[in-house]
């Protein structure tokens, strides 16, 4: 357990977070446990929460872990010779069954939930409790007939006697109703016994026992004499049943009693999981994640939200401004300055609360690239520090608090102080605050303070491992921007804010004359610097946007360039292919002309074979190994194609494909530029005879069927 006072928890509104988590728990014990959460230096609970959050997205949802508390039953079982009622055993069986299901599930899905399973593996799994109870108690919480041979016999006899009671009563009802002795309602129940509703004037004529009468006295309720005998027998059997059930429950209590420590463990385990579930639900609401937990002394909360403020603003549909804060060995202390209502205290509380939550196993609303380490102590001095009970002034109380800080502060401590140095004379209080800050600095503690004191701003500027920060203000409207800017002190904008709120200009000037010229000049310089910084921030944002746009344009240009390159390559291939065909065509034309002149077939065949041999010599002959590899590759391609075909068939079955409307084929005319359906070369139509067209390719012409041609460009009229 780390050292954190109750006051620190209250200062940072930690109980408010716990109340929200408690509301998300399903069981009363879980709700109570959630309110008792305390920060520790342990990653296990964090990992458990993170795993539970992941269960909301994956297909292996964690099974139900709700249960009825058995606190009362645990107390009774601890008393020797005591026994539980039948309903209590059903609760115990359900608790045991729920635990077993969860233990088996977490063991099965250990890859998904290793930390939750590590917690579950400390609990023993047994079915003996359920088996023992199920043998005696049914699922409705009633004792089974076969719980013991004696009970089985008693209940059989009871059923027989009940039959006789109903039979004898039915006979009496028919008899006296026929005689006209009964009221219109005929029968009723008195003291859980079935009785005849006899008219008062005939009550002496009906044999039986009078058990009561109506309010007006007009009806007498009589149990018939024949039924009385069986009713007494039934009452005796009911007493015997009750005695036997008591004996059975005592025996069952003695069987379950040795499992008492395990039942306590079961309830503890399920309530722990309920708390983890409550934390996970809360994480979902605030977009909480698990940042990196490092051993290195570094706290880096990027785009961190104050969770309570975030949920409140979400309800009001208002914007919550995130903060980015970094503390490390080379930048241990941040001094935040600037005007009131600018968000200084919220920034301070955000860091403190998020660190407390993290060390309590609760995920936090930060950017995924955030990281931190675990502190031994977190010290705070926030809010109204006047102690009415101790009759201490604000300053006395703060000094007492500082004394506590000095005793506890070390390099594993984080301190958070709001309005540091206030409550006393500004000069003297400021000087003492400066000494405290130096002491915290030399002890290598991490800390954030807010102040209006100039000397603390100067000190933060002078100390190598401390830095100033300010809450940014819009220089025109003097409205807070709720954005923390590191590296520069903030002006309090005292006179500017006063002027904005309608204080006369003359009074402000008189106030300026009352204080040191240097002080005004210093504050004015800071204000000017803040304004400049604000302008730079806007310029930086614009430049970033421009850079993003430029990158996108560059990507587009690269894509276009790649496409153009591919087209050029394909055109080059087409050109080379066409040139080759033209060259072979010319050769064949020369041979044909030679043969036309000399009619030498032998020479013709020789020349033709020569051309074929030259072309084949350019082709590389594949080795058997390469042929085999090619065949294998073709098989793989065919297999892939088959898979794709199957997928397409399935898609076609699932979706009704829209009918494809084929465009009508254009009618080809003389002069149209065309190409073969499976070719690349483009020619123009010289003539069309019947269903064939003469296509002129420039060097040669060819007769082709019109169906094998596609239009590239229609002739211009």
What does this protein look like?
The protein is an alpha/beta fold and 717 residues long. It folds into four domains: 172 residues, MutS, DNA mismatch repair protein, Chain A, domain 3 (Orthogonal Bundle); 98 residues; 211 residues, P-loop containing nucleotide triphosphate hydrolases (Rossmann fold), CATH 3.40.50.300; 41 residues. 53% of the residues lie in helices and 15% in strands. It contains 21 helices and 19 strands. A hairpin with a 2-residue loop joins strand 1 and strand 2.
In short:
With 717 residues, the protein is an alpha/beta fold. It has helices spanning 6-11, 14-23, 28-35, 44-54, 71-77, 86-108, 114-120, 128-134, 149-178, 225-256, 260-286, 307-316, 344-358, 394-408, 426-442, 454-462, 494-500, 505-514, 517-598, 601-618, 624-654; strands spanning 182-190, 193-199, 208-213, 219-224, 292-293, 298-304, 323-328, 333-337, 371-372, 377-381, 413-417, 446-450, 466-473, 480-486, 673-676, 682-689, 692-696, 701-705, 709-713. The longest helix is centred in the C-terminal third of the chain and has 82 residues, at 517-598.
Count of individual beta strands: 19
Which strand-content bin applies to the residues? 5-15%
The rounded distance between the terminal residues' Cα atoms is 94 Å
Low-confidence segments, given as residue ranges, are 386-391
* Biggest sheet architecture: 6 strands, mixed
Q: Helicity range of the residues?
A: 40-55%
| Principal-axes shape call | flat
Quick check: average pLDDT? 84
Tell me the CATH superfamily of the largest domain. Answer: P-loop containing nucleotide triphosphate hydrolases
CATH class of the largest domain: Alpha Beta
Question: Which sequence of strands runs across the widest sheet?
Answer: 10-11-12-8-13-14
Count of the separate structural domains = 4
- Radius of gyration, in Å, reads 47 Å
């Amino acid at each position: 357990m780390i050292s954190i006072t109750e006051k620190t928890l209250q200062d940072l509104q930690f109980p408010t977070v716990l109340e929200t988590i408690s509301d998300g728990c399903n069981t009363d014990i879980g709700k109570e446990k959630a309110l008792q959460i305390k920060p520790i230096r342990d990653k296990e609970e964090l990992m458990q929460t993170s795993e539970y959050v992941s269960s909301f997205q994956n297909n292996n949802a964690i099974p139900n872990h709700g249960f009825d508390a058995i606190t009362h039953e645990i107390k009774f079982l601890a008393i020797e010779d005591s026994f539980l009622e039948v309903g209590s055993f059903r609760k115990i069986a359900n608790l045991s069954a729920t635990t077993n299901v969860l233990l088996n599930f977490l063991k099965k899905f250990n890859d998904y939930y290793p930390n939750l399973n590590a917690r579950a593996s400390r609990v023993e799994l047994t079915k003996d409790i359920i088996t023992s109870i199920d043998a005696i108690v049914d699922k409705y919480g009633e004792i089974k007939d076969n719980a013991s041979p004696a009970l089985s016999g008693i209940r059989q006899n009871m059923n027989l006697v009940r039959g006789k009671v109903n039979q004898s009563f039915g006979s009496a009802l028919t008899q006296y109703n026929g005689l006209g002795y009964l009221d219109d309602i005929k029968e009723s129940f008195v003291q859980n016994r079935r009785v005849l509703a006899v008219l008062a004037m005939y009550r002496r004529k009906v044999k039986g026992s009078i058990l009561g009468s109506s309010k007006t006295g007009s009806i007498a309720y009589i149990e018939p004499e024949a039924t009385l005998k069986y009713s007494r027998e039934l009452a005796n059997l009911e007493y015997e049943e009750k005695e036997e059930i008591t004996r059975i429950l005592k025996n069952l209590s003695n069987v379950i009693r040795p499992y008492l420590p395990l039942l306590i463990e079961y309830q503890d385990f399920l309530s722990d999981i309920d708390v983890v579930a409550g934390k996970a639900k809360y994480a979902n609401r605030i977009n909480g994640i698990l940042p990196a937990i490092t051993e290195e002394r570094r706290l880096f909360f990027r785009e961190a939200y104050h969770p309570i403020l975030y949920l409140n603003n979400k309800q009001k549909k208002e914007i919550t401004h995130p903060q980015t804060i970094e503390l490390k060995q080379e930048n241990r202390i941040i001094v935040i300055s600037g005007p009131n209502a600018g968000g200084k205290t919220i920034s301070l509380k955000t860091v403190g609360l998020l660190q407390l939550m993290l060390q309590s196993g609760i995920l936090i609303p930060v950017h995924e690239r955030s990281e931190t380490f675990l502190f031994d102590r977190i010290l705070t001095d926030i809010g109204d520090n006047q102690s009415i009970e101790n009759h201490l002034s604000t300053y006395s109380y703060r000094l007492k608090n500082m004394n506590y800080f000095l005793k506890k502060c070390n390099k594993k401590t984080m301190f958070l102080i709001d309005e540091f140095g206030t409550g006393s004379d500004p000069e003297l209080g400021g000087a003492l605050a400066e000494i405290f800050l130096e002491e915290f600095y030399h002890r290598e503690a991490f800390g954030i303070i807010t102040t209006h004191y100039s000397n603390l701003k100067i000190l933060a500027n002078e100390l190598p491992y401390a830095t100033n920060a300010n809450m940014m203000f819009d220089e025109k409207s003097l409205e807070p921007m709720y954005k923390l800017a590191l590296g520069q002190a903030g002006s309090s904008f005292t006179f500017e804010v006063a002027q904005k709120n309608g204080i006369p200009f003359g009074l402000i000037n008189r106030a300026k004359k009352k204080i040191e010229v240097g002080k005004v000049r210093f504050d004015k310089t800071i204000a000017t610097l803040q304004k400049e910084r604000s302008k730079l921030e806007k310029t930086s944002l614009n430049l970033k946007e421009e850079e993003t746009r430029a990158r996108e344009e560059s990507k587009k240009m690269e894509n276009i360039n790649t496409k153009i390159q591919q087209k050029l390559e394909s055109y080059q291939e087409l050109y080379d292919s066409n040139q080759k065909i033209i060259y072979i065509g010319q050769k064949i034309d020369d041979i044909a002309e030679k043969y036309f002149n000399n009619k030498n077939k032998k020479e013709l065949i020789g020349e033709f074979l020569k051309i074929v041999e030259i072309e084949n010599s350019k082709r590389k002959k594949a080795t058997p190994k390469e042929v085999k590899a090619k065949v294998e590759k073709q098989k793989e391609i065919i297999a892939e194609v088959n898979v794709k075909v199957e997928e397409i068939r399935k898609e076609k079955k699932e979706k009704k494909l829209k009918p494809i409307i084929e465009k009508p084929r254009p009618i080809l005319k003389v002069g149209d530029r065309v190409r073969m359906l499976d070719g690349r070369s483009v020619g123009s139509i010289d003539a069309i005879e019947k269903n064939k067209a003469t296509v002129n390719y420039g060097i040669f012409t060819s007769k082709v069927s019109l169906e094998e041609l596609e239009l590239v460009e229609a002739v211009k009229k």
